[in-house]
Specification:
heterodimer; A: about 130 residues; alpha/beta; Nucleotidyltransferase, domain 5; five-stranded mixed sheet; B: about 140 residues; 2 domains; six-stranded mixed sheet; 6 strands; transmembrane helix (chain B); membrane (chain B)
Chain lengths: ~130, ~140
Amino acid sequence: MKRKSADQLAVPMSSMIDIVFLLLIYFIVTAREEISEAHLAVNLPSPGAAKTDEVKPKMLEMQVHANKLYLQGAEKPVEEIASTLKYLGSLDPDQTVIIQVSMSARATDLVTALDLCRAAGLEKLNVMTLK
Amino acid sequence: MKKRGDDTLETPITSMIDIVFLLIIFFVVTASVDKDVVDESIILAQAKNAPAVEQSDPRTVTVNLRKDGEINIALQPLSLSQLKQLLISMRAQAGNSVPVLIRCDGDTQFRHIDRVMQVAASTGLYRVRLAAEATGM
């Protein structure tokens, strides 16, 4: 098939290449969008359970407000919380983090908090509503 | 098939192009069906550390939550009670390990997210996830 007469075969190749490039561009464009999503798992309190006031010492407590993060009751910048969480996570990665979220907080704030915990290796993340 | 006369090699190309176009159209159509699950108007919050998801559970219920708190699944707007009905039927079909993915806009207030989370929790679906844009890796 390859070399019967050179001038006859040269013509359709350009349109084939056009189509192949079109397919290539299409797949590049569609592939990019799918990869870039992360799914952050959260645990929810069961709806019937009463709000537990006592906090066990093994639990980490985080509060999320609009543009503010509190760790163990004190407001701290994100970098500091990240390093503290990394240290605490290396001590005991199984400990539970209770994330209390204020109603006025935005999704970005919550995602930041969850993401910091993930980076520290903490997987047990309980999300609660701050009243 | 019409012109077989002198140049025998040019005839299969047109049918090849036909097939290629058919394939393109097929992929475009299937891709747009796939994209309908995702609400394009939602700009996800960014997560620097969490790894990007390579394969998610095919049973996943994707709930889109817009900035103003409007809920839709596959671009079909739902009220909270409709969402609850849907989740209950999902649970009846596939058990309570069906993951619920909340795709909320980065600017969505937590009060809206909380409502969706409460609905998921009250139907007994415990695998709730928040979608974020993986920017780190």
